[in-house]
Amino acid sequence: MVGDVEGRPEHIPGFEDLWRAVSPDTAFAAMGTGTYRKMTGPLVPYLVDCVAKVLSAHGVRAAEVDRLVLATSDAVLGLLGRDVAVEVMRAAGLTACVPAIVSLQQCCSSLEALRYGWGLLGADARNVVLVALDFTPDDRDRVKSFALFGDAVAGCLISRDHGDLTLAGTGLAADFSGMIGQDTFASRQAVARAALDQAFRQAGRVPGDVTKIFTSSLFAPIVSFNAMAAGQARELLHFQGPMTRYGHCGNADWLINLMDYTDKSGPERGALYLAQASAPGFFACALLEAR
Questions:
Q1: Which of 53, 62, 94, 279 has its CA 20 to 30 A from that of 68?
Q2: Can you tell which superkingdom this protein's organism belongs to (predicted)?
């Protein structure tokens, strides 16, 4: 679920000056974002509502959830509060589960959380709820050269017994030069291809098998450039609709884009989907097969 209030860029105090400061040579209209969403209340109710919707969609009771995995970007981690997991578990009735938070990988955190959550299935767990969240408290911080930030909480169920998708392979690679702001086109390209190679090798598949790609909702020219650098066809990307409406929702993007696509058509049996995210110093991806 995205933030409950719709905002427009021009509503942000000093937007024109903020945009010129980060991207003086580009017209904002060319970047493809029309509106963004903003949370207006405390975070925990949004998380609880997300958990409830995930469980309701699959007919799973709160008492049947073994693990709760939260994922968020680095900047938000310190804003959550040390009791956030307990508060969510109490309000959502998740009294039989063990919580965890995955972060410090920027917008790639939720894909690492997906890998972690999937790995819990088996002897340890039957049902894992994954919730990806990101928000920006100060509207002035929403304006970046690569994206306009929105607020969102998005979740999914990782389960032995429920779900239309299965995880076939994952990849995660890091580039320290990117973490300290000294990356280059070559280093960004290398980290993306390293992570993608990991995922395809694990799955025993090739890039040509991919039906659709769900990626970070950055500005449209930037997403297209990143896809070109990674050797991906522009027409396979699904991000433009949600990005135009919601902005860049941090590590929740790929999940929002996947849900937007499958809510309209449902998973196509036998299809192979690629979820991916890029961030300064990181690239993460996951291959999902439709059952």
A1: 279
A2: Bacteria
